[in-house]
Write a structure and sequence with these properties.
This protein is globular. It contains 6 helices and 12 strands. The strands form 2 sheets. The chain has a 7-stranded mixed beta sheet, with helices on both faces. Strands 11-10-9-8-12 form a 5-stranded antiparallel beta sheet, with no helix packed on it. It is an alpha+beta fold.
Amino acid sequence: MIYPSHLLPASEQIRKYLADALADMPISVHASIDSTNTQARRLAEQQVSAPYLVVAHAQTAGRGRLGRSFYSPAGSGLYMTLALDLRADEAVVSRVTPAAAVAVFLALEAVCQKRAQIKWVNDLYLDGKKICGILTEAIPTADGIRVLVGIGINITTHSFPEGMRNPAGAVLSPTDAPVNLSLLCATVANALVDALHGDRTEATLACYRSRLMLVGERVVCSRNFAPDGTPDPSRSVEGRIMGVDDDYGLLLRLDDATQTVLRGGEISLTVL
């Protein structure tokens, strides 16, 4: 599917839909770029004030967690990075990635009428296939921390390279009408800033819990990885997902009936 050009992200169209808190921020939209997170880091090095937004129609070197790549073909996805300056508060910074997952879920529901699920801690799935990845990077500053929230959403991508770790899919089916990606981009940005607001903490956590997938399922959590992102079985733990705690730690019930909380890693279903 060739996406209609008038519905691809455009800076002034995005600005039309932004909330007041973001209405005046710098927005750069690129036909193609290596990575929106990489460009956002360059802007930080150039002393560009946050918040600012970097968007691309395609990425030639899109990045995911653990050094993995993120497939970002032209005109079939939304690739964006929102840069925010936050106070150097570990509790606030640790909430950014799950808040971004909630923001994407809410935006997809509002703009695309699709209800996704969240795979702890930073992926979104639809019909059992990954449709969105989130990469959060932090840069220390004199006054706090600049957080780069990179979000890649497969909108109409249905063909993927062989060897991808997770089954990948798209938000829209071939029969769905295309959506305005400027509106979707702005809605994600608005929802993320709202989700991080102090009085929205409980509502954001409740939304995350309500859409968390694999609750009650037995999983293996890998906590150590090779340079290529391959899990190391020697540093893994198995158990049944019971939910997340108030800090988005994964609650895992082990075989001896004890419960542990995981603060990092990657989960996958076990084969029984």
